[in-house]
Amino acid sequence: MNLVITMSRRYGTGASMIAQELSQKLGIPVYDKAYIENELDDDDYTKEAEFIRQLATSSCIILGRCASEILKDQPNVFNVYVCADKEDRIRRIMQKESLCYQDAKELLEKNDRQRDDFNVEHTGKAWGDVNNYHMILDTSRLGVENCADILIRYFERIEVI
Taking the complete model, does pTM exceed 0.90, yes or no? Predict the structure, then answer.
């Protein structure tokens, strides 16, 4: 089966690491903002949405970009939202970016604002609304290192992999 996983996330949750681990274990590519923007050379959201639909014709993982909304009518799409406690996110950003607490907090808040604005602008829906996702993973509770395995076990159980 062609499995497309969309992964929306708060900044600093470790979702990129989860996506990379899933990619390795499932043998499917991950597409993120940098990849999509690099392929398109412009900021036309209509073109971006069409490109995401093209990517979803094969098994893949798509990080962000409102992919869960763009692909909402496709039965082979599984939408995941990754969250974590704010303090855990700040600590992860401090470590990853070598920042002090205040700078990491400001970066987190800026990124969250930008992601929320992007989502509302292009979907008209609240970012992080539980009704838009099939599964929510809290990396503060579950641990980043466990989330890919949780997803894989679920996909095995429902026999999509």
Answer: yes
